[in-house]
Amino acid sequence: MTAPGIDTCSLVPLYVEPHFRETQLSQATAFLWLRYDGRLALMTNWHVVSGRNHETDECLSKMGGIPDRLRLHMPYVDRATPPLIIDIPTVDSDGEPLWIEHEQHGRAVDIVALPISLPPPDIVATMPMNAVRTVSLKQRVGLPLFILGYPFGRQGLGLPVWKQGSFASEPYFTGHDAQRYLIVDTASRPGMSGSPVIQRVHGEIELEDAHGRMVAGDGGCRFVGIYSGRFHTNDAGDAQLGRVWPAPLVDEIANSTRF
C-alpha cells in the first residue's frame, strides 16, 4: 500500500551495496521486474555485479575487489523500521557468474538480471517496475525524464532521489545496432547506476500515437529504461551525459530462457 501523496514509482528503486566478503565496494540501485512466469528478477547493471567496466573489463574498485554478493536493502511496510538486509550472491562457489546477461550481446549491454525470492508483500514494501500502470507518453528529444536512485546511499525512510534529466538523443533511433542506448542530459552521481528511468507527467498528457492525443486526468508514467552512469571524461566541466538502456532490453534479459 502506498501512503497518500507518495508516488507509486518511489517504491520501485532498491538500494544495493556490492560486497566482496565483508567489504563494501560501492553503492548502486536496482529494481524488480515481474517475469512472464510469475517469478521476480532483480535488475541492475553488469558493471555493478561484475565490478568491471562493461567496455574495457577494467576493475572499478581502487581496492581491486570483485563483488561476490549484493547486499540489498529491502524496506518494510513500516518505513520507520530499519530495512531488511538480503544478501544476493553474484557468483557461485567456483566464482562463476550467477547473473543473466543479454543472450546476444552479453556485457556489451550493461544490464543483468538476478533471481530473487522475497518475503510476503504485506511485510516488505516493493513494487516491480512493470507492475506500475504505464501509458505510452510521447517521447521526443529535449523532453524531461527522471532517474530514480540513491546517489547518497540509503537515507531516512529509504525513499529514492528523483533526479531530473532530459532526452539528449533521438528516442526513435534508440535500440539500433549502431547505438543500443539512449543518451540523457543529467548531472548524476555515484550510486545511481542501475536506476529505473521514467517519464512522469501530472495533469493533461500527450500520448505517443498517430494522432498525438491529449488526455486529461491525473497524469501518467512511462518506463524508459535503466541508467548505467555518465560517460567518463577527464574534464570536470564535461557535458554531463549519461546512458540509458531502453525498456525492451530490460524485458529481454529479465525473461531470458537462461533464467
Mean pLDDT: 89
CATH class group: Mainly Beta
Number of discrete domains: 1
At CATH level 2, the architecture is Beta Barrel
Distance N to C terminus: 29 Å
Strand content: 25-35%
Percent range of helical residues: under 10%
Q: How does this structure look, described?
A:
It is a single chain. The chain has helices at residues 46-50, 247-254; strands at 14-20, 23-24, 28-34, 40-44, 69-74, 84-89, 112-116, 144-149, 161-167, 182-185, 196-201, 205-206, 214-215, 220-230, 241-246. By secondary structure, it is mainly β. It has a single domain (8-254), classed as Beta Barrel (Thrombin, subunit H). Strands 1, 2, 3, 4, 5, 6 and 7 form a seven-stranded antiparallel beta sheet that branches. A hairpin with a 5-residue loop joins strand 3 and strand 4 (40-44). The longest helix has 8 residues, at 247-254.
Summarize the structure.
The chain is mainly β.
List keywords for this structure.
7-stranded antiparallel sheet; 259 residues; 5% helix; single chain; mainly beta; 6-stranded antiparallel β-barrel; Thrombin, subunit H; 2 helices; globular
List the helices and strands and how they pair.
Blueprint: E1 14-20, E2 23-24, E3 28-34, E4 40-44, H1 46-50, E5 69-74, E6 84-89, E7 112-116, E8 144-149, E9 161-167, E10 182-185, E11 196-201, E12 205-206, E13 214-215, E14 220-230, E15 241-246, H2 247-254
